[in-house]
Every structure is written in structure tokens, then in C-alpha cells.
Specification:
2 helices; 89% helix; mainly alpha
Length: 61
């Protein structure tokens, strides 16, 4: 069984990773590296979806 504290910790870690990827994507876009920016924004969307799912599960657990 997963504890609420463990889910909270995972959510925090995932949020930090999401924020770091967002920063990297924006920097790549600002430097004109559109290919890298596009890929990083795709990763950002995937992490955002995972974070929402994890938080939703944590609320029901």
C-alpha cells in the first residue's frame, strides 16, 4: 500500500522535474533551437499529465 506521504513526495519531485523541463524548453526556444524546444515541450506535457493523474489518485487514496 502506498502512503499519502509517499504520494506527496512523488508529486513534489515530479513538479520540480516538470518545472526544470519547462525552463529548459523556454530557454531552447529563446535561443532559436526549435527542434529541442518542441521535444522538451512534449516532455513537459507528458510530465504535466502524469502529475495531474498522480495528484488525482492521491486525493482519492
Amino acid at each position: 500500500m502506498t502512503s499519502p506521504a509517499e504520494l506527496s513526495s512523488l508529486s513534489s519531485t515530479l513538479k520540480e522535474l516538470h518545472d526544470r523541463v519547462t525552463t529548459m524548453a523556454e530557454a531552447a526556444q529563446g535561443k532559436g533551437n526549435e527542434d529541442l524546444a518542441r521535444e522538451l515541450f512534449a516532455v513537459e506535457r507528458a510530465l504535466g499529465g502524469a502529475l495531474r493523474r498522480l495528484r488525482r489518485y492521491a486525493q482519492t487514496a
